[in-house]
Structure formats: C-alpha cells, structure tokens
Amino acid sequence: MKEHEIDIYLDGVKTRLDLRKMDYISLRNLSMKLRRILGDNEYIHEVILESDLYYFRQEISAKTVGALQKHGIMTVAELMACSYEKLAAIDGLGNKSLSEIVYFIKQLGK
To answer: What percent of the chain has pLDDT over 90?
Structure first.
C-alpha cells in the first residue's frame, strides 16, 4: 500500500482508496467523519495541504490551476501561503479565478 492510500472494509469487502485522487468535498467529508470517530486527526488535512493542485480541478478550474502552476504554485499549502495581492498580480488570474481561489480557501477553513 502506498503512502496516500487507505484500505476500507465495507461489509467484509476490502476497498483501497487513493486519497490523492479524491475530490475535495469527499476528502473533507471523510475527514469530518474520521474526526468524529477518532478525535482530532490531522492526517487528512496534511494530505490535502501536500497535494498537487492538479487534483483539485473540480474545485478550481483547469485554467486557474495552470496559471498557478506556471508561476510555481504547485500545492495547496503553497497556494494558501500566497497573499491575495500576490495572486492578483499573476498573469492569467482574473476576477473569476481569484473568486474560485478565495472560495476554495474558505472551504478549507482558512
């Protein structure tokens, strides 16, 4: 099993999930349920922060992800470390892209 994979047993059947391939909403729901069951587990949050923005194309458009990556912003953590002013100065990021990013960061709870 790879680092970002987990095995889940449902009705006696083992299913392996690759957390990097899950969309943000599914990861967040899984994280919230695990926190209720296990307590404050930061693993899922860390996986999200370390994940390549490529995996969040359902939450942030491919055009926006491409513009961010073109400027060296590859992971969620790197995106969250950027100020709004820095993002607004990036070529290819207009008001719509900036709105997507702001909404995405709010969904992460920051």
So the answer is: 34
CA angle 22–105–71, rounded 5-degree value? 90
For the entire predicted model, the pTM comes to 0.61
Dist CA 96 CA 39 (whole Å): 37
Nearest alpha carbon to residue 61 among 22, 29, 103: 103
Question: 């695990």: which residue's tokens?
Answer: 34
CB-neighbour burial class of residue 53 (10 A; exposed 0-12, middle 13-18, buried 19+): buried
Residue 96 three-state SS: helix
Domains belonging to the chain, first-starting first, are 24-107 (1.10.150.20)
